[in-house]
């Protein structure tokens, strides 16, 4: 049996794999059913996503169980568990390994697998398939860490995001950036400054690294985590500890220097912003946590250490309790007051049809296929109704890259009819919207608050964290179950 595996970074219907005989084709990324139907006709065999092996959220919960196995081994003198703080950063790679191993275990013994490019997925599958895995030679199959790899990654981001990535990668400890920022004004009342000793930090790093070596040996007995080690995905842990301790001591300085009365953390999956909440809580300060989006599915695998976790409404509270199993006693509804609906100028309906795009690649989804499913129909509808089709980009999407993608996916007339919006959600956008369309962005909540119709694309509900089901449960947005709708 010959099986083809399509990598996210490769275009499925362009490459040396076209024209070869295949018994099955699997996609390592995510696309909607129309895409797989079209691919099946081209390949002459069924095309399906690897994700079909998932059992609801069982694989995500498995990641949570695996991460708990490292707790308590890397605790510093402040009582901070550095495994818990940093292990969540590779949750997606670990989840991918859980899914890939499950997929590989279900293959027939005579199956030979060809993958369209080398990289993390190929290296992982080779651990389980050995010589049964083959990498196809193609122009796209370049080393993932070469200059071409970084160029392809960076051109998808706005320039400001690229600059921030470079700063965070090469100046994590703010050794250079601190010289370009003025000191904050001193408070009028007396303070006590207790600077951290460099020698003490070195001893702390050394102690944690010794315990890290012990933890590594424990992880080697757990198949999925052993795979992470063998693939080199944890090789940078020593650097993470050193950088993390520098950030920790900077926050300690803030807490020592400023009259802080409470800590509000808006992202407890980011170690740099989670640290001050943990440090403040150990000092007896009220610790409050929240999330900027409609939901945070990472609570399926992480523990809330705040005194209070704010939910923006009953919908998010229900998701945290019934899907993520967060302790209800920690939760409070703390949403801001909803603004009054905007009055539309000139008529009762807007003149814009707005598609809210997202950085789909981050979620291993194929942007080209999502655009192909949604935008042509919207462009034709806008032309027939005399409306203007606007595509609103997420702040982390690159305008030129998205325009290039649309030009290769839509007809000339359709692509030229699209107008692009970047930046923040301005009041004019909501005021002039006839209706909005999104796959499953939290912007649907914003539209509901302002009384603007917004459609969700259920046939593209590819994200396994249950967001679409929660929107449907609370009647948020109008759900389109098929592309024809």
Structure summary:
Helix content is 42%, strand content 12%.
**Based on helices, strands and strand pairing, what is the structural class?**
alpha/beta
Give the biggest beta sheet: 6 strands, parallel
Gyration radius, in Å: 25 Å
Separation, N- and C-terminal Cα atoms: 38 Å
Could you give me the name of the CATH homologous superfamily of the domain at 352-480? Glycogen Phosphorylase B
Report helical residue fraction.
40-55%
| Order of the strands making up the biggest sheet | 12-11-10-13-14-15
Report on this structure.
Helix 4 packs across helix 9 (223-230) and helix 8 packs across helix 10. The protein has 18 helices and 15 strands. It has 485 residues and is of the alpha/beta class. The longest helix has 22 residues, at 198-219. Among the domains are: 2-56 and 91-153; 259-336, no CATH class; 352-480, Glycogen Phosphorylase B (Rossmann fold), CATH 3.40.50.2000. The strands form three sheets. It has a six-stranded parallel beta sheet, with helices on both faces. Mean pLDDT is 87; it is low at 138-144 and 188-201.
Keywords:
single chain, 485 residues, six-stranded parallel sheet, 15 strands, 12% strand
Sequence-ordered SSE layout with sheet pairings:
Layout: E1 2-6, E2 24-27, H1 33-43, E3 47-49, H2 58-68, H3 82-87, H4 91-105, E4 112-115, H5 120-129, E5 133-135, H6 147-154, H7 159-170, H8 198-219, H9 223-230, H10 237-257, E6 263-265, H11 271-282, E7 287-289, E8 308-311, H12 314-323, E9 331-333, E10 352-356, H13 367-385, E11 388-392, H14 399-409, H15 412-417, E12 418-421, H16 427-432, E13 433-438, H17 443-449, E14 454-457, H18 467-473, E15 478-480
Parallel strand pairs: 1-2, 1-4, 2-3, 4-5, 6-7, 7-8, 8-9, 10-11, 10-13, 11-12, 13-14, 14-15
């Amino acid at each position: 049996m010959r099986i083809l595996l399509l990598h996210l970074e490769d275009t499925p219907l362009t490459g040396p794999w076209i024209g070869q005989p295949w018994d099955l084709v699997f996609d390592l990324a995510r696309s909607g059913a129309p895409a797989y139907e079209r691919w099946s006709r081209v390949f002459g065999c069924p095309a399906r996503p690897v994700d079909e092996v998932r059992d609801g959220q069982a694989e995500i919960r498995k990641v949570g169980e695996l991460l708990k196995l490292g707790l308590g081994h890397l605790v510093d003198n402040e009582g901070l568990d550095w495994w818990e703080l940093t292990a969540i950063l590779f949750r997606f790679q670990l989840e991918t390994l859980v899914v890939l191993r499950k997929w590989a275990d279900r293959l027939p013994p005579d199956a030979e697998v060809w993958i369209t490019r080398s990289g993390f997925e190929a290296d992982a599958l080779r651990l389980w398939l050995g010589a049964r895995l083959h990498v196809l030679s193609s122009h796209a199959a370049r080393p993932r860490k070469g200059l071409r790899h970084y160029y392809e990654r960076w051109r998808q981001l706005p320039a400001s995001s690229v600059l921030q990535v470079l700063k965070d990668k090469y100046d994590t400890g703010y050794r250079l950036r601190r010289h370009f920022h003025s000191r904050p004004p001193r408070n009028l009342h007396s303070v006590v400054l207790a600077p951290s000793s460099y020698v003490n930090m070195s001893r702390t790093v050394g102690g944690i690294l010794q315990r890290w070596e012990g933890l590594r040996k424990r992880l080697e007995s757990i198949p999925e985590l052993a795979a992470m080690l063998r693939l080199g995905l944890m090789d940078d842990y020593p650097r993470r500890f050193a950088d993390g301790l520098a950030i920790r001591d900077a926050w300690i300085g803030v807490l020592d220097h400023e009259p802080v009365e409470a800590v509000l953390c808006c992202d407890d999956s980011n170690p740099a912003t989670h640290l001050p909440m943990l440090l403040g809580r150990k000092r007896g300060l009220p610790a409050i946590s929240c999330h900027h989006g409609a939901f945070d599915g990472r609570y399926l695998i992480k523990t809330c250490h705040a005194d209070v976790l704010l939910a923006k409404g009953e919908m998010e509270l229900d998701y945290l309790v019934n899907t993520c199993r967060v302790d209800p006693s920690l939760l409070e509804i703390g949403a801001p007051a909803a603004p009054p609906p905007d009055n539309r100028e000139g008529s009762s309906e807007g003149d814009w049809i707005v598609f809210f795009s997202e950085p789909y690649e981050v979620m291993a989804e194929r942007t080209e296929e999502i655009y192909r499913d949604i935008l042509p129909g919207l462009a034709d509808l806008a032309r027939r109704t005399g409306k203007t089709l606007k595509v609103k980009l997420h702040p982390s999407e690159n305008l030129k890259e998205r325009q290039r993608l649309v030009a290769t996916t839509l007809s000339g007339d359709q692509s030229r009819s699209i107008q692009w919006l970047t930046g923040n959600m301005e009041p004019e956008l909501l005021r002039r919207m006839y209706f909005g369309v999104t796959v499953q962005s939290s912007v649907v909540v914003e539209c509901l608050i302002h009384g603007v119709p917004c459609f969700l694309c259920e046939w593209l509900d590819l994200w396994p964290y249950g967001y679409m089901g929660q929107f449907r449960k609370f009647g948020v947005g109008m759900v389109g179950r098929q592309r024809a709708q």
